[in-house]
Amino acid sequence: MAIDARIFHIGSLATVQGGFPFRGSIDPVLNGSVWAVQMKDVSADSGVDWPGVVRTELPGKRSADWLSEGDILFVSRGTRFYAGCVDEPPGRAVCSGHFFHLRVQPQAKVLPRFLAWVINQPPVQRQLQQAAEGSNQLSIRRPALEAMSVRIPSFADQHRIVTLAQLARHEQRAMQQLIRNRQGQLEALAEDLSAN
Fold it and tell me: Domain span at residue 75?
């Protein structure tokens, strides 16, 4: 299935900012005024898991780059680089320094969910692995991320691809639930057998 698409650099489609520079671990504050998104809170499949995000107060007087719906969080350090799309935050929220915070530019003809999806696909993942630096911990520098090439089709094709990806995730979750159910049945049978 051939899809007509144009090549863009990520930096021409989105602004790329570093996450908030917390010094050390993020201290939870009961009823804190800010949600602080960490790597454990983000997945490529489902974006930000807001119920698990810690609330805190920002140290110092540095201004924050607040997260908005449609922003993309890119994990820039570690063994796996991936992007997750932000749903509506529950309040003022920032991401930690392990992320790059991408915001699609108004004139860019790309859906944020599509851009996150394409970053997670093998062609861009190969570019990221080649651009990764470091000996103990791999990381991607901002200029390298901005220079990544992505192929962007029409809005209609982007919508179709994003919808197909969502359907695939739903199918995967349903299959995993079926496997868990079957395993539970087998374990119950084994318990019944051992009780006799």
Answer: 5-153
